[in-house]
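Moderator note: this is an archived Q&A kept for reference. The question asked for a predicted structure of one protein chain; the sequence and the answer are reproduced below.
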Amino acid sequence: MRNRTARWLAAHAYPIAAAAIIAAAVAIRVTLVGAGWPGTDSDDSTMGLMALHILTRGEHPLFFWGQAYMGTGEAYVGALMLALFGVSSFALKCGLIVLYAAFMSVMYWLLTQAFERKWALLGLVFLSLGADDMLYHQLNAYGGYLETLLFGALLTVLTCWLVRTADATTHARRRPWVYAGWGLAAGLGLWSDPLVAPFVALTALALVVTCWHEVRGRLALLALLGLVLGLSPWILYDITAPSLDAAKSFLQRTPAPSATTTAPTPTLGETAIRRVLGTVLVSIPNNTGEIPLCPVTVDEAWPPQRWTTPRVRGCMLVRGVWGAGILALLAGALTLEIKGFMVARRTPPAKWGVDERRRGARNVARLVALAAPGMTIVFFLFSSAASAAPWQYSRYLITLLIALPVALATLWAHAPPSHRAPWRWRGARRVDIASIAGLLVVLLALGTLTTYGEIGAQQARNQVQADLVRALLRQGDTAIYADFWTCFRTAFQSGERVVCSVLNARLEMLPNRYPPYDALVRTARPPAYVFPLPSAQADAFPSYAAQHGWRLDTHTVDGQYVLFHVVSAGG
């Protein structure tokens, strides 16, 4: 019995090690959210409110409130977690951890198909760790980003399997189901977030090029049916809400120039330079673990006019070298795989033997995993997000989590062993790739430890927010006017016992993500106004009240929030 157990463990050593790494990744994230990091904000809480409505009201939202392009998978998973653990930010974020664990499992499958299994384990180590900005985007329910990772990796691995087994009679019965699964994954991915589109396009192209004899027949129809099924929430939404233009909504996800700005309009050259700087010096480093190397704050990092001290300028130089280095890694790996694919294509795929199919499948998986995030970087460079707010919108480049371990493993696979590389060989050697991989692991581990160091400060912020909710409920303020970042967070943290309408900096009402809240607030008497300190709303409201002849009763909460109650109104 003991020998049999030992043989079983030896035969399954890699899957067991992979499961252990995934369990460690889950433990890291559970302990963080259990300790209150990264807290919640109104975007995250909006998804929580949607989950609460699914659970308690039987609602079935198809898109993120107020939008027409981002699916609600996180809300449905969150509803399950709320049912298990109660209404809390912790429960909502447990759903995100489940999605991330699923992504890691698919990535292990992908990496074992494309590389040696030791690189699959190393890739999981990369994915289990993360600097604070990376973990922040994994643990906030902003909608679509984790699904982009999950469905992007799943599309890649399904395509790899289909290419590898195209002529294997032993898999003939499975292939229709896998094609249908590919279509379903593509449709659900696009519904969740159009950021997955590069993976859909490239995997479809790969199947056309390498499996044309199959996709021109009924299997293509199965894939198309799966795609339509996956997109059915989007189709249903467009049928039931035809006045909303989903494509236009998606294009509006990047910040538009302010109509009130008095700054001169930058030239095309200046705009291009800012977009390159924002992408290379801010967004790419934030997604690849550079942060512990030379920390800067979001206010220090952008715009470039704020690089006023030697420390900040030095850190931005480090970030620039890092971002350019990451791009060089991706470009080098992609070039090698493109060359390999061109060589493989000299023999028509229809005539590939078993070995050629296996090599072609690996080649396709690597190409998609590298080229799809590369396409996303190119699209990002052409968006206003790259120049207007590259730190906040760096989450658009989240698929670098797929590309980075694949790039390192690809370079390793193509590099000669160090003892065989002559001194005059100018390419990367395996010792160089191992050094880069080791540096990444160290920095990601440091980033994870640094994130744990932020728990105390976040807990203090969480306490202030909890005190605000208690103060509102104690005074009977169940319907309030507030700024956006206070509004939906307060509604979720109160379990919707407090609802809200949103006022901008000029104290004008903004369209509500959930319009029924406005009706509830309008009927509330007397009205309460809640703003953070300091804020434009808090500064302007006393004068605004005086203009209307209102007498105010004013309270503060922990010196962080001010509550205005209108106790009498002028004629």
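Archived answer notes: The longest helix spans residues 310-344.
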